[in-house]
Each structure stands twice: as C-alpha cells, then as structure tokens.
From TrEMBL:
GO terms for molecular function: metal ion binding; metalloendopeptidase activity. The keyword Methyltransferase does not apply. Residues 230-243 have a biased composition (Polar residues). The keyword Protease applies. It comes from the Bacteria. GO terms for biological process: proteolysis involved in protein catabolic process. Residues 218-243 are annotated as: Disordered. PROSITE patterns: LYSM. This is Zn-dependent protease. Its cofactor is Zn(2+). Residues 428-475 form the LysM domain.
Length: 478
C-alpha cells in the first residue's frame, strides 16, 4: 500500500510536469556594484566632526534619490568611473558643499534650497568631484595637518594669546580656501563632467551668480557662527569665475536648450526645511525661541540676532552694543550671586551683585569693566540649567541699561500653543497665476529679510526679470 501511494504520488508529480515549461536560464547582465568609498580613521573622525558642526544628516527620501541619481550620472560621465562617492545631505541652512579626499561629498539643504534646477546642483557636485579627482582635497588635508602642527608648537611655546590667536586664524584660513588655480581647475573639470552627463553646462555660471547674490544679502549680517560660513567662504564666487564658467560652457553647448531638469527638481525640494532647524532654537526677527527647551526672549530694537552653535549673539546696528545668551552648568547648591563672582569673568564688581527674580525664575546680576567695554551680566536658573545674558557696551548709558533690563525681563516660558505653532520655515513650490508679480509673491514669504530680493535669488531671477503665468516658483512659508 505504501509503495502504491508513493508510486501514485510520484506519478502525480510527473503528471503535473506536463503543464510546466522548463525555462532555459537567460544570461542577464547584472549591474556593476558602485565603487566603495574607502574609510580611514581620519575620514571617519572628520565625518563625525562635520555632522556635529552642521546639524547632522537631513533625512528626505525624495532628495536623497535626486542627489543619488545625479551623482550616478556624473560618475558615469567622468574620466574616473571607478572612483567611489558617497553623498551626505547636511541639516544646515548654510549654503555649503565640500569633499573629503576619499570621495565623501557633503551638501547642505541650504544649498539645495538655493539651486533652481538639477543642472545647478550637478554643477556643485561635479565641482566637488573634481576636487577629489585632482587630489585638491588631499592637498588641503595635508596643509591642515601641517598648519595644526605649527599651531600646536606656537601654542606650546607662547603664552601670548594674541600670537596664539594669530596662528589659529592662519590655520583656519589655510583650511578654508582652495587656491585660485585649484578653483578654476575644478570649475573646468566640473563643467565638463556635467556637460558629458547631458546636464546644462551653464548651470555652474548660474549657481555661482546665485551664490554671489545670496552672499550680498548676508553682507549686512556678519555671522559669528562657523556653521554659517557658506560655499563662497571656501569657493569665492568672483565675477571672473562666473565668466570663466560661461566660457567653458560654450565649448559644450549653446546657452539655451540643454537639460536643466527644473520640474523634477522643484518637485523634490517642495516642503524642504529652510533656514534654522527649530529643534535647536531659532530667530524670528528680534525674538529667539527654543520650543524644545520651552523658553523665549526678545532682543532690543536695532539688534540683529544670530543663533550660533555656542550661543545666541546679538549686535546693535553700528556695533556699539552687543549681547550673548548661552547656557552653563552651575551646581544646584551654588547661589547665582556666588557663581557670578566665581572668577569665570574678569573685572566683576562684587559690590554690584544683586539677587533678583525674573518672571518667577531666580536670578542674579552684576556689572563688570574691561579696557574698552562695560558689561552687565545676568544669570537665571531655569529648571536644572542656568542661562546667562552678557551685555556689552562701549559706553554705559540709560539706553544700554534699559536694553539689558528689558531683554532679560522678556525671558519667559513658551505657552503650549506657542510650542505647537513653532514650525520650521519651508520651501513651497507654487504656480504663478494671472496678476501675480515678483512683489505680490514676495509678500507671501514668511520669516525672511529682504523678501523681494530673496524671492529673486531663490528663483534665479535677475534684478529686472518678471515671473510668467504658469511658471513654477519657490517661496518660503511657515
């Protein structure tokens, strides 16, 4: 019986075979794996430093797909398709991009927001690839190592803070800039790679112009934050470079007709976070808000606030007054008055120390004098943290005293409604309707200075150009 069942079963399997076709295995060309990016302890350390300095990674699948496809096209068109690249999008509103010698490329969301189409983005990526291919990034790394050694020697040998600061400044200068020849060489190679990848080679000239105009908008606000140093700091966008990029582009294509890929680019950046990340606190006009920590304060009239990695810095128009707001660790058992007199700041007048309460928070204040500046210092205990306000003025006056007092008195908890309403600014892509103008569309922009000029720069419009009906344009909204 068992033999019969087995036989029946085998017969059944054989019978089923009549309805199946045996496919002949086809030879399929498998795609070649992408070249790997070699990691070393030095590049891993630099990668972590970059992430810490630029707000970490910005996770957006649409953007990552756009950037990845763009790089793949550029790599295939380059003379070194065997060179591996890995691109990281940084969560920073600064306009910046850079490369490590091993092929790790970095681009900020601020740069992606400024670019108007994929050909402009490709010009930046191919430029950074050119620095890798030409070994510029490796040369700069060697220079940085040598400069660091010089700085360490000077620091060890000298107790003169001015001399040490000078050495450090020179180190940063060496790190910051590629040489003029390296920039021109990278422009030439980059434009060539973009053109061979069938992107509009004029994208480089357009983006260099956009960077130059963006830098002009920032010129009135001298940022003290290293995160805010933009692409023009290390890649100067001079008129000569713009003209050079145009000349190179003419070797590959006429000014019109090459692929810009604007529509798919705008679709990918729609809803992109613009400017500061609210999770780290942000500036809105004269107000600083930190939804995560739950507080806010307002700077005096005519002050410009800058949210840096270490502190919020405020400078009065003309530079005669300044302020700093930051957080410090103070033991719970130490009084704030004792902290102000504990020696962390020179010139504190002990007799000026005063205990006070600011909107329910325990605090203390004191005055201090330096050679050229006079200071008013406040410390406030907010939960387990202590926040400091340091006000500096070249000449003490009724106005400077009032500015300090009113700013500190504005420090308070955010309401639940304010925390929930504290949303980031975002890029929104809209369609131009009949009757729309640059001026009317710029009035729809939120949270930005110089809205009309900002709108023009974001959309690649020169100072006289007007929008056209059915054009797709970027605005900034909250």
């Amino acid at each position: 019986m068992l033999c019969l069942l087995l036989g029946t079963g085998l017969a059944g399997c054989g019978d089923m075979g009549r309805f199946q076709t045996v496919a002949t295995p086809a030879t399929v060309a498998m795609p070649k794996p992408k070249p790997a990016v070699a990691q070393t302890p030095a590049t891993e350390k630099e990668h972590e430093r970059i992430l810490a300095s630029y707000g970490g990674t910005y996770d957006d699948p649409k953007l990552e797909s756009l950037v990845s496809k763009t790089v793949d096209r550029l790599v295939a068109a380059s003379d070194r398709p065997d060179q591996g690249y890995k691109v990281t999008i940084l969560n920073s509103g600064a306009v910046n991009a850079f490369a490590l010698p091993n092929g790790q490329l970095y681009v900020t969301r601020g740069l992606i927001a400024l670019a108007s189409d994929t050909s402009e983005l490709s010009s930046v990526l191919s430029h950074e690839m050119a620095h890798v291919l030409s070994k510029h990034a490796a040369m700069r790394e060697d220079q940085a190592r040598q400069a660091a050694i010089v700085t360490r020697v000077v620091t060890d040998m000298s107790n003169d803070p001015d001399l040490t600061a000078l050495a450090l400044a020179k180190t940063k200068l060496t790190m910051a800039s590629f040489s003029r020849n390296q920039e021109f060489e990278a422009d030439g190679i980059g434009v060539g790679i973009s053109a061979k990848a069938h992107f509009d080679p004029y994208g480089a000239a357009r983006f260099l112009s956009a960077m130059e105009r963006n830098a002009e908008l920032k010129a009135g606000k001298s940022s003290l934050d290293p995160r805010a140093q933009d692409f023009t700091s290390s890649h100067p966008a001079t008129p000569e470079r713009v003209q050079n990029a145009q000349t190179i582009a003419r070797q590959y294509a006429a000014p019109e007709g090459a692929e810009r890929d604007r529509e798919s680019y705008l679709a990918a950046i729609d809803n992109l976070v613009y400017g500061e990340d609210p999770s780290e606190g942000f500036v809105r006009g004269r107000r600083f808000l930190h939804p995560k920590l739950g507080f806010t304060f307002q700077a005096p009239d005519n002050f410009t606030l800058d949210n840096t990695a270490q502190a919020v810095i405020g400078v009065r128009e003309g530079g005669s007054q300044a302020m700093r707001f930051d957080v410090v660790r103070v033991p719970a058992e130490q009084s704030l008055g004792d902290y102000l007199n504990s020696g962390w700041m020179e010139g504190v007048e002990k007799a000026s120390t005063e205990d006070l309460t600011i909107n329910g928070f325990p605090g203390a204040s004191a005055t201090a004098k330096g050679d050229q500046w006079q200071f008013k210092v406040y410390a406030l205990r907010f939960g387990s943290d202590v926040y400091r306000f340091i006000f500096a003025t070249r000449q003490k006056s009724t106005e400077s005293e009032r500015n300090a007092r009113e700013t500190v008195n504005s420090f308070r908890r955010l309401t639940l409604e304010e925390i929930q309403a504290a949303r980031p600014l975002r890029i929104k892509v809209i369609t131009v309707q009949p009757g729309d103008t640059v001026e009317s569309l710029s009035h729809r922009m939120a949270g930005v200075d110089h809205p009309a000029e900002r709108f023009r720069v974001l959309n690649g419009l020169d100072r006289t150009a007007q929008v056209k009906v059915r054009d797709r344009v970027k605005i900034v909204t909250d």
